[in-house]
Amino acid sequence: MTADPSAWIVRWAHAVPAGGHVLDVACGRGRHAGYFAALGHSVTAVDRDAAALAELPAAISTVCADIESADWPLDPAMQFDAVLVTNYLFRPLLPRLVDCVAPGGVLLYETFAVGNERFGRPSNPDFLLRPGELLAAVDGKLRVIAYEDGRIETPRQACVQRICAANPSSADACRYELRP
């Protein structure tokens, strides 16, 4: 875990219920899994790279699976207090990820968007979100707390979309603090 967590993920980490169970999808080397484990959350990290998963702390539950060419590796009824996705897009998985957010939980998603091809990789449209695509993915299912679609300068110039969306519960009335 050498890279710092995404500023978007750090900004919205407070929206994850205290001590909640976090799912880090396509976790890579586990920068976000490690971040949430350090905050006291139980974490399940999913990736197809067994070597990267083996480097994660023992406290993080790992699942080695190719989520693009095999069945979803977790119990379909399993829900999490937070579902995290960064720098990854596999469109057929979007509905499953939304369904994995437990009542009172959040989806924190950040990845590249159309326009990123001007700045480098990824440039393939299959890996770039179309305008409003994250909003459409959660429409009618999760409450959008924050959404951004545009160009960033750090950690490198890129076009991204990011969302923090909650699965409403009766106690949700304005509980999310908007932080810079």
Please outline the helices and strands.
Blueprint: H1 7-12, E1 21-25, H2 31-38, E2 42-47, H3 50-54, E3 61-64, E4 80-86, H4 94-99, E5 101-112, H5 133-138, E6 143-152, E7 158-166
Sum up the structure in keywords:
29% strand; globular; alpha/beta; 7-stranded mixed beta sheet; 7 strands; 180 residues
Structure description:
It contains 5 helices and 7 strands, in the order αβαβαββαβαββ. By secondary structure, the chain is an alpha/beta fold. Strands 3-2-1-4-5-7-6 form a 7-stranded mixed β-sheet. β6 (143-152) and β7 form a beta hairpin. The longest helix is centred in the N-terminal third of the chain and has 8 residues, at 31-38.
Briefly say what this structure is.
The chain is an alpha/beta fold. The chain contains five helices and seven strands.
Helix percentage? 10-25%
Terminal CA distance? 25 Å
Q: Low-confidence stretches at least 5 residues in length (pLDDT < 50)?
A: none
Report the C-alpha radius of gyration, rounded.
Answer: 15 Å
Shape: globular
- Annotation field: number of helices: 5
* H/E series: HEHEHEEHEHEE
The pLDDT mean sits at: 91
The tally of beta strands, per DSSP, is: 7
- Percent in strands: 25-35%
- Describe the largest sheet: 7 strands, mixed
Question: Which structural class do you get from the secondary structure elements?
Answer: alpha/beta
Strand order in the largest sheet: 3-2-1-4-5-7-6
